[in-house]
Amino acid sequence: MLTTLDHLVIAVRDLEAATGTYANLLGRAPSWHGSHPAWGTANTLFRLSNTYLELLSPAGAGGLADGLREHLEERGEGPYALAFGTDDAAACAAALRARGLPAAEPLDGSGRDAASGVERLWRNVFLRPEDTRGTWLFAIQHLSPPSLLPAAAAIGDEAASVSGVDHAVVMTADPEGAIALYRDQLGLRLAFDRTFAERGVRLLFFRVGGITVELAAALAAGGSGATAADRFWGISYRVPDVAAARARVAAAGFDVSEVRRGHKAGTQVCTVRRETHGVATLFIGGSA
Questions:
Q1: Same domain membership, residue 63 and residue 182
Q2: Which of 52, 100, 162, 274 is most deeply buried (CB count within 10 A of its CB)?
Q3: What pLDDT does residue 51 have?
Q4: 213 and 256 share one domain
């Protein structure tokens, strides 16, 4: 039903400024500068090895633009949506409804690149945040060949640039409710469920298309049945050389931590604290 984590959406106010920030953060040039005239939005895309990142901003009149403006007013910039890939939007919508999620009928969408004029087509299956524990989740079936969205070219040293997404982090107050949604209704594989008392957190890893959707629950958050909405919170990026990536973003003016040992054996990580337009950001790679 859902085969990939197709892309991650970040809501931004100033698309041009955010595009510059993320080109420097990722060490890659944008793949696409586009617009959705019917929806009143504009976007910049960075296609990575296993997914793509979308910076989305209101640019005119439209239902999506209005919702995005409301989100930016209430919550500010930051993670906005998780888009899962599907091979058949109609079958996906039917399967989601059969599992208790009132998915909308597939809706045709299109986007046009400002520089080349290339148009890409897709079909979306939208879910209401009130049915997905407060996080905006949707499915997308691409109707255009992948080649129309080129890979984001490295700026400088490839080893110091972001190669892909390791995991997306969603904060939850109800891990059992999250399991019911992500495993039982969305059909994602629950690969890891463990409580770390010393860190005060329970972590759930749902795997899809080689990427992890991590649900993190503070042990004092309230447990099963807690009513607080989930929140898409952060992104962890894979980098070939963590030390080189850290040096690159530090030289570009980012506030970044020192390299440290990751929680996963054999990894190193560093945290990019700002400026990330409201996204909790981690670089992760193999140990030196």
A1: no
A2: 162
A3: 98
A4: yes
